[in-house]
Amino acid sequence: MENIKTITKNKKAFHEYFVVESMEAGISLSGTEVKSIRQGGVNLKDAWCSIDNGEMIIKQMHISPYDHGNIFNRDPMRNRKLLLHKREIMRLLGLVKQQGLTLIPLSLYFKGSLVKVQLGLCKGKQLHDKRAVAAKRDANRAIDRAMKEQNR
Known about the structure:
By secondary structure, the protein is of the alpha+beta class. The chain has helices at residues 11-16, 31-38, 86-99, 127-150; strands at 4-9, 17-27, 42-43, 48-52, 55-59, 62-63, 80-83, 102-111, 114-124. The longest helix has 24 residues, at 127-150. The chain starts with a strand and ends with a helix.
C-alpha cells in the first residue's frame, strides 16, 4: 500500500458544487514548486480545470514561491498541465460539453513521492440546495447531541 499524505482540500468546492464523479491525475510541476508544496504553500480555493488542445490544464491554482528558490521560482498563478490518458481527457471533454459539468480540483496529496490531484466532475449547486444541505447538517448535529445526552 502506498503512502498517501493529504496536502490541502478544496472545501469551497464541496460547498459550491455536487461532485458527480472523482478521479486522480498527476500534475506537472517544477522542483521549487514541489518544495513549496511540501511546506504547505498551495491554495486550491479558486482553481478550476479546462481542456485546451487536447491537454488538461489546471488554472488559478496558487503555489507560493519557495523561500530559497531565487531565480528558479516560477509564476505562482501559472497554468499547470495535468497528466491523464488521452481517452480519459476526451471522455471528460464530452461530459463537460454535453451535460454542462465543471472540472474542479478537490484535493492535492502526495502518493509516495509524487504529487497527485483529485479531480471532481461537478455540477453547480443552487442557493436552495446549499440551504438544504446546511439544514440537514444542523439536524444531524442536533440528533447526535440528543443521542449523546441520552446515553449519559
